[in-house]
Structures are given as structure tokens and as C-alpha cells.
Amino acid sequence: EDPISIHLSITLGTGIVRSNRGSRSSASQLCPQHIRVSSFCAIPIPRTEPPFKINTDHTQAPMPLYLGLDVGTSGTKALLYDPDKKQVLGRGSIAYGVQSSRAGEAEQDPAIWIEAVCTASRQALQGLPAAQVRGIGVSGQQHGMVVLDKDNMVLRPAKLWCDVTSAEEAEELSRVYGTTLVPSFTATKLLWLKRHEPDVFAQVATVLLPHNYINFWLTGEAVMEASDASGMGFLSENPRLWDWERVKAVDPRLCDCLPPLRSANEPAGRLQPDAAERLGLPAGIVVGPGGGDNAMAALGVGAVEEGTLVLSLGTSGARGLCMAFHMPCIAWRAIDFSQSLC
Length: 342
Known about the structure:
Blueprint: E1 4-5, E2 16-18, E3 24-26, E4 35-36, E5 65-71, E6 75-82, E7 87-95, E8 107-108, H1 110-125, E9 133-140, E10 146-148, E11 158-159, H2 167-177, H3 186-196, H4 198-203, E12 206-208, H5 210-219, E13 224-225, H6 226-229, H7 244-250, E14 261-262, E15 269-270, H8 273-279, E16 286-287, E17 291-292, H9 293-300, E18 309-313, E19 317-321
Parallel strand pairs: 1-4, 5-9, 9-16, 9-17, 13-14
Antiparallel strand pairs: 2-3, 5-6, 6-7, 8-11, 10-12, 15-16, 18-19
């Protein structure tokens, strides 16, 4: 009485099926609960119906491809991925440096990232069907401060995660917040900007992080993904909400400068025509929310099960633990990536 796996051997009109044991049985003699259909279901077809129309067109719709971008501290990388074949089809990379005019300073012009994204993407797409690309995902270095004016123009070079000129501001905000903030965190850099470049700070209309800025250039929409936002120092115990009291401790005006938060399953937008032309891609394809590079790297190495520990050694070092529930950070030295690792 073992279940029968049907191999699609149907005789028209009689409903004859062939089991994996080679025996022949009438479909009318088989109880439904004894049949396990692996791919098809055997249904008697009356002889009075017209014969099957055999499809001789063996062409298939082109398989979707996806472009991955990583905007790092020392360079930008691009990968073109085929999820059907589980293969990387193309690669591209561009290296660049860090600007520093004094001790502790580390800055980059965001325009360098845009040029690198365009060049690396075209390298990855060279000789491959760009028209089949259906989506883009961006990861990026975390914590960097990108400030835009009311016309969405970059006001100054981005202060990177490794810029420690805001050490005094980090100590001050740590006392105010009652928890440890290091100079890497964006909140400390914004307080530094307010004190050291007040004319620039007065023009700030939007605050973004590096990968958010790339998403903004791609889509024209200013949004922020939760895993990256968790490294700013402004996120509340609920990882999808800004802690406005923390924001006001730097400056109340910043409450109008932080973009809406997006979770890991919400797109950042769609590729706008100008960016599509520079990348050599179809306009309108989906741009995913992406995330901070450490969170995205953890997903990339398969840290999707509870208890998996990830150690990342690069320009910086980081450890991450995959958990089945959200655990509020005890100290800001621990960055909550739960919205990307869910």
C-alpha cells in the first residue's frame, strides 16, 4: 500500500498510469489517498476531445539576473549574479583612496562612489545581457556622514567611519545618552559639524549614509535601511524607529533631516532613467534596500540560522551573531543588524 509516484505516463481515454515500480493500474482503481503526485496528476481524458497541440517552441523567457554593489572604504565592487544557475557571471572593481588633511581625519567625496559604481557595473556587465537585470542591491561602508542641502547637493566630503575627529563629541554624547558611543557613529560627526562648520550645518536638509546615498542616486528617493541606521546612534530600542530625544540632543532641526526607515523587505525604489543610462541598465528595475556591509556580508556567508557567529576581517573587524529575536543593545559598541538578518 505504498504511495505511488506518478511518472506522467497517461494513455488518453483509459487513464492508465505507470508507477515507479513499472506496474500498470487503471486510474479509476487508485484511491486518491494512495497517490503522491511528483510533478503531474493523471486525469482520464475523453477520446472525443481534440488531440493535444504539441508546443514546438522551446524558447523560454530570459532568466532574471541581479546586480550587487558594494561601496567600501577602499573601493567599489560589482557582481552580476544568475540565481537560476547560482553563478557569478561578471565582476568589476574600482579602487580609490581616503582624504586626510590632519590627524584622525578620513573623508571621501561621494562623487567618487558614483563614478566607481558606474565603472564597476559596466565592467561586470561587459558582454552580458544587461536587459535581463531585474534588480540591484547595494551594501556599503557604515557610519559615514553624507549631508545634502535643500537641492539635494552634497555639502561637503563625507566623514567616514574611521574618522575620529569627533572623539570629544563622542564622549559628550555618551554621557548624555548614558551609553557608550565611539567616534565612528554618525551622531558624533553631526555634532562635530554643528560646532566646527556651523555654516555648512545650517544648510543641511538631508542626512544619509554611504549606501543610502547610492540608493538615492539610483532611485531619487531618500530612505534609510534599518541595519545601516542602527550604526548612527539615533535608533531607539525598537529598531524601526528613530529615537527623537537622542536626535534632539544633537540638534532639534535634525528631526526633519533624517529620512524614512525601510525594513529589509521593502524596496528603496526603482532605477531612474539618468542612472540607468550611466549604468547601461533598463530604467525602472527594482533597487532593494540593501544594508550595511557587515550585515550584508553575514547574509552572504549564510548566517541565517540562530546561533551562527560571523567574524569579518577587512579594513575594520566585526563580529555578528544571528539571533531568532531582537535583543536591545546593551552598549552602542554592539550594532543591531536584526532587521537585515531576520
